[in-house]
Amino acid sequence: MNYFYIAIATMLMLSCKSSKQPNGDSKDNITSIALQRTPCFGFCPIYEVQLHADGTASLDAQDHLQNNLKGQFKGNVAASEWQKLTTMLQTMKFRELNEEYGSRNVFDLPSVNTSIRYGKDQEKKINDYGGRGTAELSKFYEEVDRLLYSVEWKGGIDR
Question: DUF6438 domain location, by residue (predicted)?
């Protein structure tokens, strides 16, 4: 009979254990991704894209994009695409990377400025002059570029 009470007590204790679910308030939960490509002395794409965990996206396309977009656009990103990007960031340990990469000895390279928001009040920014900070960052930039050209953008408000 004592084993019965011990088993019941154990089940009650285990059922009271809370499961930790990620939510918008978690400091490790990525809530937005912003990536900006700056000009060079040539034909480098110049844009800023913002992606949000709810699937919404905005694009400020300035010049030299492959799809010739210019202006401000809104679009949506599939949950699977969002998950792919956030997994890449977590795998590369984005929060632990340097805040700056690249040598300023060359004067015509574009920068890639990346800003990742965690929860409601934490943000990590990286300025990557030349866009070659780490191999993982380069792959991430390529993935954002690929996504940029696959989204069906709506709008096109000229400046």
Answer: 32-147
